[in-house]
Amino acid sequence: MLSERQSMILNAIVDDYIRSAEPVGSRSISKRGDVAFSPATIRNEMADLEELGFLEQPHTSAGRIPSNKGYRYYVDHMAPLKPLKAEDLKLFKQLAAEKLNAVEEVVQHAGTILASMTNYTSILLGPEMFNTSLKHFQLLPLNETTAVAIIVTSTGEVENKTVSIPPGVSASDMERTANLLNAKLSGVPMHMLKARIYSEIGQEIQRHAEHYEQLMKLLDDSLVSGKDQKVFLSGTTNMLIQPEFRDIGKLKTVLDLLEETPTLTRLLNSDQKGIHVRIGSENIHQAFVNCSLITATYSLDGESFGTIGILGPTRMEYAKVIGTLDLLSRAMSRALTGRYGP
Amino acid sequence: MLSERQSMILNAIVDDYIRSAEPVGSRSISKRGDVAFSPATIRNEMADLEELGFLEQPHTSAGRIPSNKGYRYYVDHMAPLKPLKAEDLKLFKQLAAEKLNAVEEVVQHAGTILASMTNYTSILLGPEMFNTSLKHFQLLPLNETTAVAIIVTSTGEVENKTVSIPPGVSASDMERTANLLNAKLSGVPMHMLKARIYSEIGQEIQRHAEHYEQLMKLLDDSLVSGKDQKVFLSGTTNMLIQPEFRDIGKLKTVLDLLEETPTLTRLLNSDQKGIHVRIGSENIHQAFVNCSLITATYSLDGESFGTIGILGPTRMEYAKVIGTLDLLSRAMSRALTGRYGP
DNA sequence: GTTAGCACTCTATCTGAATGAGTGCTAAAC
DNA sequence: GTTTAGCACTCATTCAGATAGAGTGCTAAC
User: Fold this and answer.
1) Is position B104 within any domain?
2) H-only helix segments in B68-164
3) Were both Cys, which of A71, B114, B149, B231 would link to B222 (CB 3.0–4.6 Å)?
C-alpha cells in the first residue's frame, strides 16, 4: 500500500512526534539521518501521506502529526520489539521473587510496576471468576438478624457478603446447609454453582431442614457477589504529565471514566487472548478518543484469565509499552500458574 | 479582638470570595447591602484587616482575599449551621433505608453521597480495628504449601491473607489450632489478640500438637493483615473543577497524595472526636497547603470509631460542608450502631 | 526522479497603548 | 471623631500591530 520510502518517512514522523509532542517538519526528518533525502522530497511524500489519511496538519505552516490511521500503520508494521533495559528486568524479577501469595497481591503489584515503568496509567483486571471453582463456603451468624457469607475459590480468593438471616432460620440450619454445600459442591466451577445448588442441594435441604424457601433465599443472597472482576488502577496521575491533557476538560473526561469500574471492565475485556492495541477512536468509549489502550492477557491456571492494560495518549511509546506488557503478562502467568492447580 | 464592623466586613469578604474565587473589592462589599458603609470606609477597615493578617492582597490594585487566619476567624465565628435543603435530606434517608448490610458498604456509600453533595473530594476511613473483637478464625489449606487465613471481626468485617504452610504442619494441625483459637479467644479485642495467643494458646498447642514453632509462626503470619484502616475515596476528580487547581503542578501534588493511603490515614486520624477543620498550612502535609480538610468521626458501637472527611481548596464552602459532615456522621452512627452490638 | 530556491501562510512573541478595577490618601462633610 | 467624596496612582488585562521564524507548496533546474 505504501512505498518503502513512504513507510520510512511515516515511521520517522511518528517516532519524532512520540518523543516531542510537536508537529514534525520535513527538515527535521531529513536531518535525522535515517531518511537520506532532501526536505523537498520529503515534503512531497508528506503531502501524499496526508492525502492518503496517514498524516494531519494542524495548520498550513505547521509540520505534520500522525492521524489515528498513521499510528495504526506504525503499530502494525513496527520493528520487532526491543529487548528491555537491564534495570527494568530487575523489576520483573522482583515480581517473581517476592513472596507474594494471594493472586490479588500479584496483580496489584504488577500494576504498580507497569505504571512506574511506562509512566502511563495501568489498568488491570483480576482473574475472571468464570473458571475458578468453589473451595469452601461458610455462613457465620453475627447476631440474630445478620450473617456473613464467605466464599473461598480455588485460587485462594476470598469473597464475603453480609446477608440478613430470614426469620425462623437457626444457626444450626445454616451450619448444616454450608456443610452440605462443601461436601457436595466443592470443586464445582463458580459459574455453575447456582444451577448445581438447585439441582443437587435443593432436595437435600428440603429433606433435612425446615424453611426450605428461606434457606434457598439465603444461599441466593450469599452468592450474588464475586461475579465481577476486580479492577486495579495505578499511576492515574501519570495522565497529568501528558501535554495532550493540559486541557483540564479533556483530563476530567478521562479521569472520570477511570472511576467507573464497570465501564472499565467492559472496555478492557475482549474475547481474544494476547496483545491488543486500540488507538484513539478505535476505543468504543467517547472519553478515550485522545487515548490509546493496549491490553494483554495473563493466565492463572491455563483456564481462567485476566487482563492487564496501559492507557496513555494516542501519542504513546507503543514499542516500549507493547514490549513491557508482553513480558509482564508472561511473568504474571508464570508467577501464578501451577500454584493453584486443580 | 475585631470590632463588630471589622468582623462583618471580613465575613462578607470571605463569603464573596468563596463564591467567586476572585479578589473582593471595597465597592462590591458596599453594594452587597449587609455592610451599609461607603467603599472608602470599607477600604480603611480592609487596610486594617490586612495589617492584622486576616486579609491578603495579590497586588496593589487588586481586591483582597482571605488569608488562612482570615478563614480561621470566619470558621470560628461562623453563624449557626443552615439547615440542609430538602433534596439533600433525601440522600441521607437513602443511606438509612437501603438494605446495606456490611459496614464497608455503608461507609463507601456515605462517601459517594458526601462527594456528590459537596462537589469536593471525600475521604473516609473505615472503623478502627482497635476496638473490634475476634468473631471467627479459620485456616483453609489451598494446596500443599499455601493456605488462606480468614479473620471475621465482631463488626462483620472479613480479612483474609494467603500464607505459606510451614513444612511438617498438617491439615488437621491447622484445623485443631483454629478451633482452639475460636474456643478460647472468640470475643477478644483484636489489639490484644497476639498477646493472648502467646499467653493462652501457646501451651495448649505445645501440649497437643507437634511443630509448635511452625504453628505459632503460621498464626503470626495470619494475623499481620487487618491492622490498618481502609480508605475510601470519592469525587477525586472534583478537585479538577476548582479554579485554584487549574495549575497542573499543584493538582498533581494533591492527587498524588490521595493515592498514598497510609499517609492519608495518618492525616485524617486525630485523637479527638467530633468535627475538625484544618485550613491550609494547618495541615501537616506540604501537599495540602492550598487545601482545607474537614473531618468528623462516626461511631460504630459506641466504642470503635471511623473518620469521614472532605478535602477542598481553602476557599471552601465551610458552612455547607460542616453542616453536611455533621449530619452525615450522625446518620452513619445511627445506621451502624446497634446492628453489631457486643 | 530529485532538489534548490522562493514566495507564501500562519503561529508565536513582543511591544505599546488603552482600559478598568481597585487602592491610598487628603480634605471636606456630618 | 467618624464617615465619605474626590482624585491621583498602580497594576493586571486586553487588544492591535509589528516582527520573527518555522514550514509549506510550487516551479524550474539538475
Assistant:
1) yes
2) 68-76, 86-97, 103-118
3) B149
* pLDDT tens track for A133-152: 899 999 998 888 888 899 99
State the nearest Cα–Cα gap between B52 and chain A, in angstroms: 37
Q: Are residues B123 and B249 in the same domain?
A: yes
**Is A342 inside any structural domain?**
no
Q: How many domains does chain A have?
A: 3
Residue B240 Cα, gap to closest chain A Cα (Å): 7
Closest by Cα among A101, A190, A205 to A137: A190
Answer yes or no: do B101 and A339 touch at CB < 8 A.
no
Q: Residues 42-101 of chain B: which lie with beta carbon within 7 Å of strand D?
A: 44, 58-62
Q: Are A101 and A238 in a shared domain?
A: yes
Residues A233 and A115 in one domain: yes
- The alpha-carbon gap from B173 to the nearest alpha carbon of chain A, in Å, equals 18
Instruction: Examine the domain organization and report whether B119 and B100 are in the same domain.
Output: yes
**What number is the average pLDDT over the span A224-247?**
88
Burial environment of residue B199 by CB neighbours within 10 A (0 to 12, 13 to 18, 19 or more): exposed
Buried b (16+ CB within 10 A) or exposed e, A200-232: ebeeebeeebebeebbbebbebbbeebeebbbb
Q: Are residues A236 and A164 in the same domain?
A: no
Instruction: Among A121-125, A172-176, B241-245, B273-277, name the one with the lowest average pLDDT.
Output: A172-176
Residue at minimal CA–C1' distance from D24? A61
Hey, what's the cell of A320? 516500549
The nucleotide closest to A39 (CA, C1' atoms): C3
CATH (domain of A271): 3.30.450.40
Q: Is residue A81 part of a domain?
A: no
In a domain, A302, yes or no: yes
Query: Phi and psi of A26, rounded to 5°?
Result: -65, -35
Question: Sign of the C-alpha dihedral, residues B270, B272, B277, B283?
Answer: negative
Residues A112 and A154 grouped into a single domain: no
User: Which pLDDT band holds residue B342 (cuts at 50, 70, 90)?
Assistant: very low
Q: What is the CATH number of the domain that holds A33?
A: 1.10.10.10
Q: Does the pLDDT value for residue B158 go beyond 90?
A: no
**From CA B308, how far away is CA B126, in angstroms rounded?**
9
Q: Where are the alpha helices (DSSP H) in chain A?
A: 4-20, 26-32, 39-51, 68-76, 86-97, 103-118, 171-185, 193-196, 202-208, 212-222, 248-259, 261-268, 318-336
Q: Which residues of B touch A (CB under 8 A)?
A: 99, 101-102, 105, 135-136, 138, 140, 142-143, 146, 148, 150, 152, 154, 156, 158, 160-164, 236-237, 240-241, 246, 248, 251-252, 255-256, 259, 339-341
Residues A238 and A123 in one domain: yes
**How close are the terminal C-alpha atoms of chain A, in Å?**
49
**Cβ–Cβ below 8 Å for B101 and A164:** yes
Rounded to 10 degrees, the C-alpha dihedral A245/A249/A254/A257 comes to 170
pLDDT of B195 above 90: no
Positions of strand C less than 7 angstroms from a protein CB: 2-5, 8-11, 20-26
Q: Which amino acid is at A286?
A: Q
